[in-house]
Amino acid sequence: MEELQELLKTYPANRHSLLRILQAAQRQMGYLPGEALREVASYVGVSPAEVYGVATFYNQFRFIPYGTHHTVVCLGTACHAMGGQLILDAFERELDIKAGEITPDHEWSLDRVGCIGCCTKAPVVVMNDAINAKMTPFKVEEVLAGLGLQLKRSTDSEGEEAGEREPQ
Amino acid sequence: MAEPVTEKATVELTIDGKRVRAEQGEKILWAALAEGIAIPHLCAIKEAEPPLGTCRLCLVEVEGQGVVASCVESVREGMVVHTDGERAVALRRRAMELLLADHPLECKDCPKKGKCDFLQLSIAMKVKRPKNYRPFPREELPVDASHPRIIFDPNKCIRCGRCVWVCKERVGEVPFDFIQKGYEMRLTTFMDKPLGESDCTGCGECVEVCPVAALCFKEGG
Ligand code: FES
Ligand code: FES
User: Is B14 helix (H, G, I), strand (E, B) or coil?
Assistant: First the structure.
């Protein structure tokens, strides 16, 4: 939080700086925790509730940290048409969190986005900045197990090429 | 807020064919009401500057300008206003329909029963709740009864913003505000905490101005 104080001092203390401060704070911390929002609020002289309102208006701000493994499921038009929702469901089921949440041990976080820009590979999932193409619910389990997640129902078939099947 | 009683410049305008004098900067709505010309309105608070302008029930037509929200638009010299222009009336009705479509009409067991400005206005405007505007009904949100004095039912909120305004004006530090946007926009406290955990003093100013039963006193306020 000391770093945040340093950062605040570089902006004029009025409500017009609010967005720029929020952006910079998120760049610094990776997300916007409640205490940070409170400090920003008292610095610019706006109620914390209003700062929260402003921050939630924009999709660029997040209020929980990233997990060690951050997963982004694409639900853009192409990925949606190719079953992106099923992929998201599979992640939600396995990780036991909803999109926009993080597991209690901070290992896994999950998000959904619009198009990522590689629609030919739909449905697409970005995990730890790597693209996973042509996902299937089965591949979801595979990828998660590969990253060390204890799967709900143990998959004994080590699941080789089964995931390579093209979705219809 | 306190209006200086000193000589303020006035302008002359015409509302529904009637010549009206109004103070410079006055909004059309208040100038009309002062002359006994009725315009539906729900979110308007005279002292609010800038006006809230959220409900869109006060739309009128201004010649050469089109449809405007009368609680937002200031009077001008020579302005010609029609409160019953076809377009304005149609848009007002549509605005009311959209608000009703999103509002649980459980008036029978509503704590605001008999005192609901929203219901009364919809009856006065003769607008019924449309049957099929919302193919997917809004997700039902939990009622917040955590505060010792005030009950907040987000499902009834029509997002007019009167509570936020009055709290800011009379109390200062507002414990709640609108979050998110569009269809998801709703009133909540900082970090979405229960009202009882916020700094809300329970003064009840917000309950007084709430036109629906979103904010009520406990024990059937
Ligand atoms: S829709 Fe998913 S990458 Fe384009
Ligand atoms: S009264 Fe004018 S917009 Fe609500």
Answer: strand
CATH class of the domain whose range is A69-148: alpha beta
Fold category of B144-221 in CATH = Alpha-Beta Plaits (3.30.70)
pTM of the full predicted structure? Answer: 0.81
Q: State the residue for tokens 């080590």.
A: A158
Residue of A51, A56, A64 to mutate, interface with B, max B Cβ within 10 Å: A56
Which SS3 state, helix, strand or coil, does residue B42 take? coil
CATH T-level assignment (fold) for domain B10-135: Ubiquitin-like (UB roll) (3.10.20)
Phi, psi of B196 (to 5 degrees): -65, -20
Q: How far apart are CA A73 and CA A126, in angstroms?
A: 6
pLDDT digits (tens, 9 = 90+) for A8-65: 999 999 999 999 999 999 999 999 999 999 999 999 999 999 999 999 999 889 999 9
Q: How much is the ipTM here?
A: 0.85
CA atoms of A121 and B74, how far apart (whole Å)? 55
Provide, as residue numbers in chain A, all residues whose Cβ is less than 8 Å from the Cβ of B179: 52-53, 56-57
A33 touches chain B (CB under 8 A): no
- Please report the DSSP string for A59-94 in residue order: TT--SSPPPSEEEEEE-SHHHHHTTHHHHHHHHHHH
Of A34, A47, A57, the CB nearest to B191: A34
A2-57: what CATH class? mainly alpha
